[in-house]
Amino acid sequence: MARKLYIIDGHAHIYAAFYARMHELTSPSGEPTQAVLIFTTAILGLIKNHKPDMLVVAMDSKAPTFRTKIYPEYKAHRPPMPPELPAQIDR
C-alpha cells in the first residue's frame, strides 16, 4: 500500500488563518493567537480526515535564501508582514 506524504506551505496557511477575521482571539496575557489556533485546527483536521503517514510543514526563512541570489527581485515587492503576525508564527 502506498504511503501518504502531505507537504504543507505553512506560511501560506498562517497568512490565510490570520486574515480569516472572525473575532480577535488572544491568550490570557493578551497576545494575538488567532492565526496559530486556526492553522493548528486545520492541520489537526487534515490529520484526522486524511490520516497521512507523514506530514511536513515548510515555513519561510527569515534569512535570505538561494532564491534571492538567483533572482534578487524574489518577494521584493511584497508588503511587509502585519505587526501582529510574527509573534504568532514564532509560537
How would you describe this structure to a colleague?
- With 91 residues, the chain is of the alpha+beta class.
- It has one domain (5-90).
- The protein is 42% helix and 11% strand.
- The protein has a two-stranded parallel ribbon.
- Helix 1 packs across helix 2 (34-50).
- The longest helix is centred in the middle third of the chain and has 17 residues, at 34-50.
- The N and C termini lie far apart (36 Å).
- The mean pLDDT is 90.
Helices, strands, pairings?
Blueprint: E1 5-9, H1 10-19, H2 34-50, E2 54-58, H3 66-70, H4 85-90
Parallel strand pairs: 1-2
Whole-number mean pLDDT? 90
Strand content: 5-15%
Please tell me how large the radius of gyration is: 16 Å
Please trace the helix and strand order, writing H or E for each element.
Answer: EHHEHH
Name the shape in a single word: flat
**Overall number of domains:** 1
Low-confidence blocks of residues: none
> Gap between N and C termini, in Å?
36 Å
- With helices defined by DSSP (H or I, 4 residues minimum), what is the helix count? 4
**Oligomeric grouping of the chains:** single chain
The percent range for helix content is 40-55%
Q: What is the number of beta strands?
A: 2
Biggest sheet strand line-up: 1-2
Biggest sheet overview: 2 strands, parallel
Report the structural category. alpha+beta
